[in-house]
Amino acid sequence: MQISxxxxxxxxxxxxxxxxxxxxxxxxHRRLQAGWSFGVILFAFINSLFxxxxxxxxxxxxxxxxxxxxAPFGISIVADxxxxxxxxxxxxxxxxxxxxxxxxxxxxxxxxxxxxxxLMLAVGLTGGILTGDLFNLFVFAELMVISAAILTAIxxxxxxxxxxxxxxxxxxxxxxFLLFSVGALYASYGTxxxxxxxxxxxxxxxxxxxxxxMVFMLAFFMVKSAVVPFHFWQPDFHTAAPTPVHAVLSxxxxxxxxxxxxxxxxLLFIDQMDTAKLILVILGIVGIFxxxxxxxxxxxxKRMLAYSTLGQLGxxxxxxxxxxHLALMAVIVYSFNHSLLKAAMLMLAGTVSSxxxxxxxxxxxxxxxxxxxxVSGWLFLLGGMGLAGIPPMNGFISKLILxxxxxEIEEYLPLILLLVGSIITLVxxxxxxxxxxWVQLPEQVKPKPYGDMFLAPAILIGLSLLLGIWSEPLLQLxxxxxxxxxxxxxxxxxxxxx
Length: 498
Description:
single chain
């Protein structure tokens, strides 16, 4: 059944876009602009909750056809359970990021364009998830790149400009990859609407340009999610970004790639992805060890958590590569868990570094500084337990589902490597905790009497703890999402009608 004229699907995008424009108009009133931006992102998040609830309860995707043009001729905004869940998760974390920015002492938050750019970053990510058209995926992804690059370039960190250039040009290459894929698919099937394309690929799966389009699209999403060896922009870029921006970049922005892999394997290229799934498993294992060992050896807390993202995404890639029902449930739960915890831990590193005489997250500067903010230490330890998969955090639930899925399909070697990777996670988390909160503060170091607030990371850690103790709602959502993904005809019929 086609549901047209449903504004609930497009409302988050319109809200954020309008909010960013109005934010620019009131740029002379910084407090008003900051409060307005938080209100806008909170409204968009609440709207995403209603959207998810309507899709979940109704059992059908919600489709808005822009301009009244029916698919595949017009632009479709599609909220099925996968896109609605990912959009809600992203807006939750971005809401926490803007809340953190309200109490952040970085000078960058005083820039007149900081909050509008933050909202535009949310537009790019949310639009990329909800769009039902591949070319508009490119447009939203580029909007996200430009916003993130500018936010990093104006960072207090003197390396921000260099990191922003590196990210921008590498993302430009990734955008070209997607355009090549889009061109090959359009030349082959005459459409860029995702539902229509999926239908036509099912009817004619052996077109000569199919392998080329798949390779370029895989490369695009690998760059977006910083999959090893496409990761080289990520540690420098994320380390130099302002803390509230870094928290969003390293937790939910990289999930656009995960979302793309799920669409490729369960909707667009269902019968053509066997080799690609094996590649994802191999790259996932490499990422777990490369990211984990990189995090263990690095010199900076924010950089450590950036490398940690490479490792944590490796677990998710393995589950996508396995592709079973239980493995895909692990992808949803793990993605949600990682988004909450990684954002919170980066914010906690920011609360500590904000107390340093010169704001930096280098271990040489923040060793023992956690003694000034002991509450953030307990929160950091809980977050680290979640990343390592230790109860009662929700990370334990996601790791347990992932392990059960591996046992179910008898993938024992990757399982052993996965467990070793979890131990490495615990090693670098404990190392960071000891350096920051366990070691005594050197006498010559005089911490600042003020710093960033830790309300936002406390909310995210608390939510992960709650979902660890009471995991049933998230598990039910993951079950329903995977069940809907495994019936791609529902998505196709909702968009195209018939």
